[in-house]
Amino acid sequence: MAQAQEFEKVLSDSDTNVAAFEDHGVSVLKRIQHFLHSTPAAVPLIVLILSIAIFGIAIGGRFFSSYTLTLILQQIAIVGILGAAQTLVILTAGIDLSIGVIMVFSAVVMGNCAVTYGLPTPIAVAIGLGVGTLCGLLNGALVAYMKLPPFIVTLGTWNIVMATNFIYSANQTIRDADVAAQAPLLHLFGVNFKVGTAVLTLGVIAMVVLVLVLWYVLNHTAWGRHVYAVGDDPEAAKLSGIQTKKVLMAVYALAGLIAAFAAWVSIGRNGSISPSAAVTDYNLQAITATVIGGISLFGGRGSILGTLFGAMIVGVVSMGLNMLGADPQWKVLLTGMLIIGAVGIDQWIRKVSG
Amino acid sequence: MATQPLLTARGLVKRYGRVTALNQADFDLYPGEILAVIGDNGAGKSSLIKAISGAVNPDEGEIRLEGKQIAFKSPMEARDAGIETVYQNLALSPALSIADNMFLGREIRKQGFMGQWLRMLDRPAMEKRARDKLTELGLMTIQNIGQAVETLSGGQRQGVAVARAAAFGSKVIILDEPTAALGVKESRRVLELILDVKRRGIPIVLISHNMPHVFEVADRIHIHRLGRRLCVINPKDYTMSDAVAFMTGAKAPPEEALAA
């Protein structure tokens, strides 16, 4: 035992119990702040329930029907899957502007391989998934090894992939009927089935399963914890022995792979394969879903379940306003407000320790 | 000294652009000792430590662990070799829990199918070991082992970082300013822990500005000045003011200390 200095002698009598404090006197607001800090998916879930309730009251029973609610799910399946990819990247304090075009390009590759070149459909799908992963790997290499800012890298690859897509496809749309005749497997995720009046597609199921799998990976595996650590404080993660470059490579590659998977789902939903699909829409909606879902753009915070709720919020708001017959611009306006509100709440929750 | 040093460094040089952080620095750590490293701000103490712990690659010079030359490319390699470091900035991830932080980079997985195929973390085991280590350190004010590190006070965070090193270090433990942010009770615990680790036969490198702490626990004191080892003194032969005078250049170090 070290020779204790005089004033340290009383320490032998010190309390050895784990500290516990009575909770009273803590304001309700503070408690809410702490609850939200430890449960990041709660905010989007509350907003989702509120928006369903508000539109339900405004529209009435028509909105509450299982048909309408499941239709919303069908509409958000692609955005939800892209949002899941975006979530991984944003958790590392990055952003991937290119996932929308990676999706479209992968869809075109899948369609051409299966329909134009007549390859067996599973091989065509595998090639498409591979192309998406390669695009993601390119992003990852530029971010992790060249140390370029993710925003600039993916702005660049967005243009590169989009141009490649148009040059390669000569802007030819592959028709629905051709896909159905030659490669029906590409339409797999469009297959729907009824549960009562609810209509679900395999695409919806795929989105939910994908989010649940990613939730498990992010929260219950070492790799998932590393993703959070890299986004939180890359220097600390490195000193803790995490191979930050490999984690970043894997995250961007996985985002590319998921974008290619979204391509397969989108073929099922749209039927035809168009190289000029509304890329910007998908891209921004996926980022919107992620941000509204409470994933912090500064990295390391948020739950992927929040992204799912965020995508649902966007779906509910656009469906609700449609049914109310509102000008579509109201949807855009409301989405903008939700984004700013979500970032504001994120900043407030971060102050929990300050 | 008759025994061979466990960890040695010779002629380390590290430059950051025009700034020279290490200028032909030497370093010796003997088995089972507590070596304090003191020096003015900017003397290169942290660079020396980072070179030994694999966080930076020196431009020149060689490092030997147990006689074998080593060149760590990452902190992970140093950790695998048994050198554990508590950095000044602690290297904790603020948003992750205490248990997750303590096991960052060497997580425990569940046994059987869940662990092998689904790679599921064994949270209960990690939390239990983390709690045991914190209790050993006397950090009883941490109520919830699952709480995020950013919700802890500065001292508690330091305690978590020290507990992490103590739990895993097998050959050398390096502590960079381990008591800087700690209260009286926690500082005492850390010093006791340092002596406890020494009793287990593991040598410790202690970087500190706290002279009473240094003189209390150190077996030898390495005085760093202007990027190199100025001298090594025995705390029994010199006073704290001597040490401060050497490290600030107010007094020339004695001849016999230079040789050590």
TrEMBL record, chain A:
Subcellular location, record wording: Cell membrane
Keywords of the record: Cell membrane, Membrane, Transmembrane, Transmembrane helix
CDD domains: TM_PBP1_transp_AraH_like (cd06579)
The keyword Cell membrane is annotated on this UniProt entry: yes
InterPro entries per record: ABC_transp_permease
GO molecular function: transmembrane transporter activity
Topology in membrane: Multi-pass membrane protein
GO CC annotations, alphabetized: plasma membrane
TM annotation in the entry: 41-65, 71-91, 98-117, 123-144, 151-168, 195-218, 247-267, 305-324, 330-349
Protein name as annotated: ABC transporter permease
Protein source organism: Mesorhizobium zhangyense
Organismal lineage: Bacteria, Pseudomonadati, Pseudomonadota, Alphaproteobacteria, Hyphomicrobiales
From TrEMBL, chain B:
Keywords for the protein's UniProt record, in alphabetical order: ATP-binding, Nucleotide-binding
SMART domains in UniProt: AAA
Alphabetical list of PANTHER family matching this protein: CARBOHYDRATE TRANSPORT ATP-BINDING PROTEIN MG119-RELATED (PTHR43790), SUGAR ABC TRANSPORTER ATP-BINDING PROTEIN (PTHR43790:SF8)
Protein name: Sugar ABC transporter ATP-binding protein
Pfam families cross-referenced by the UniProt entry: ABC_tran (PF00005)
Coiled coil ranges: none
InterPro entries, per the entry: AAA+_ATPase (IPR003593), ABC_carbohydrate_import_ATPase (IPR050107), ABC_transporter-like_ATP-bd (IPR003439), P-loop_NTPase (IPR027417)
GO MF annotations in UniProt: ATP binding; ATP hydrolysis activity
Domain of life according to the entry: Bacteria
Domain ABC transporter as annotated: residue spans: 7-251
